[in-house]
């Protein structure tokens, strides 16, 4: 009995040690897709690079198993059976563990659900926050065009100031969101990729709040590099 128990423990230990590290198992469904190819891509040196692909031949379900050393934004593309690559894509925050993406052929890239990634949940929260500012800006732009058509300079100037105010608020909201999510890789990601013309002050502020494991992540190191680059200029 002791021998059997010891053997089982050794076998379990061996299986654990042989398990792939930092592996992401991505499964999902594209409802309505009968034939085509799903392509998993990442951004490397500002270029989209394919990581893996899955041929869909009648089964709407798919599965990818890839190494994700550090949580990062990946993209799921769809090439149709006629060879056309859809313009729409599914961006999602990949991380170690089991993730699921469900969508439809008709709404691919527009309507989808991602589960299993904490960073992706934060990413969706951030996108919702930014959409509110985008909606405000669209309303102002519409009113500006009307004022321009009516040659109403006074109204146009007021709206111009409102537009600038919305942009400043959006900028600060991004920084504050990054600060509030300092325990997640989404925080340095936002600072590096989502804020145009970010100042050194805010880069330093966010970076100084990050715990060491986030500083050591892909986007944490990208943020450190950006800070050094700006300091050198």
Automatic annotation (TrEMBL):
UniProt keyword Ligase present: no
Top-level taxonomic group: Bacteria
Protein name: DUF4369 domain-containing protein
Signal peptide location: 1-21
Keywords: Signal
Keyword Signal found: yes
Residue intervals of the DUF4369 domain: 25-123
Alphabetical list of InterPro entries matching this protein: DUF4369
């Amino acid at each position: 009995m002791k021998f059997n128990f010891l053997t089982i423990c050794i076998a379990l230990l061996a299986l654990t040690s042989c398990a792939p590290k930092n592996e992401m198992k991505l499964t999902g469904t594209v409802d309505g897709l009968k034939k085509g190819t799903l392509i998993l891509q990442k951004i490397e040196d500002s270029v989209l690079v394919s990581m893996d692909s899955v041929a869909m031949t009648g089964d709407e379900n798919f599965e990818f198993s890839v190494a994700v050393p550090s949580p990062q934004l990946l993209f799921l593309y769809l090439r149709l059976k006629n060879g056309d690559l859809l313009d729409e894509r599914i961006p999602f925050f990949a991380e170690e563990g089991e993730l699921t993406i469900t969508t439809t052929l008709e709404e691919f890239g527009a309507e989808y659900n991602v589960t299993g990634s904490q960073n992706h949940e934060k990413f969706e929260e951030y996108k919702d926050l930014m959409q509110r500012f985008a909606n405000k800006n669209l309303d102002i732009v519409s009113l500006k065009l009307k004022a321009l058509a009516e040659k109403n300079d006074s109204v146009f100037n007021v709206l111009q100031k409102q537009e600038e105010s919305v942009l400043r608020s959006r900028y600060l909201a991004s920084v504050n969101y990054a600060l509030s999510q300092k325990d997640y890789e989404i925080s340095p990601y936002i600072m590096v990729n989502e804020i145009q013309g970010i100042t050194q002050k805010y880069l330093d502020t966010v970076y100084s709040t990050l715990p060491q494991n986030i500083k050591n992540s892909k986007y944490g190191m990208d943020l450190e590099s950006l800070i050094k680059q700006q300091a050198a200029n």
